[in-house]
Amino acid sequence: MYEHLSPPTHMDVPAQRQSTGYPLYAPGEQAPAAQDYAPPVSEDTEPRSIGRRRFLKLAVGGAAVWAMNDIVGEVVWSDTDTALTTINRETIPYSTDEGWVVIPGFGSRHGAGMAALLSQTLNRKQPIGYFNYATSGLKMDDIVREMSIFAEPFDTVSLYGHSMGGPTGLEAARQVGKPLNRVILNCSPFSMFDARGGEMKYLAAQLAKKTHYEGDFASTYLGTVKTDIDRHGWRSTFGSVWGGIEKTAHGPSPKLVTSQGKMLAGFDLRSHQESYERIITPQTVVRFAAPENFGRDKTVNDYSSYINYYDFFGRFGVEVELIRYKNGSHADTRHALEALKPYLRQRY
Known about the structure:
alpha/beta
């Protein structure tokens, strides 16, 4: 039905795979099964010893927090619903051709700032919906429900995917069923295997094996305090306990982060090709934004991600254009939208 586009000629997939060690997938190749992927053991996957005395103090402090884990966790991360907030709602009766949805990435709670920057970049005032994730954990059913309600008045939907928000938004859009007008993928991994670094590769393999860890306050606290010890040396037990609680309470919810990781590990966009034929049309415009220097992105391998998205959308005859921005790093919304301004201000 569609002409399958090949990747750009300057992209030498086998050579890049050999030089980086990343499991890139050339067009037509199937990604290996998650359980067959065993990341190499390296310094960043081996736990560092913190010493017997330090471990004892850490265990004592950790046990105290673990004892009140349920109480603290419920107080700090008690949100129950993921919701979508709309800005420029008053323009909906006059802008039914396209509605924008902003999907935040891994570890992010909401996309308010991203939506504000997108609104400034567009050449007209348009309805933009952005997600606020529940700290108690993220579920695809909630995202689909909220996106369906938002998309109802519009003929088409456009997506701004921030990092992991790219595949999350595409999967939700597939289930909603509205045609896609424009898709912006800002350093979005195609799958968990596009994550950079041995530690993330290890996490990818473990999550893909369907681990059942749900994340809680105590275990996140232990990791936070251990990181503090490794970086700054040991302080008093009280100081470490209090510092760990403070950092953990103000950081990303472990239940949210764990649920996002599981969600990304379970994505397989290629397995739903027939469903995507309903929403990806020859008129769909796709842009992949990344730093001018791929090495500045320490979170996602933008090269492999771009190649995988190029292959995926190429199956529907849609070309993915690579947009490089200067001075930014991973999923830098401000720099990405500045580079994308000429495309966003065109009417499609």
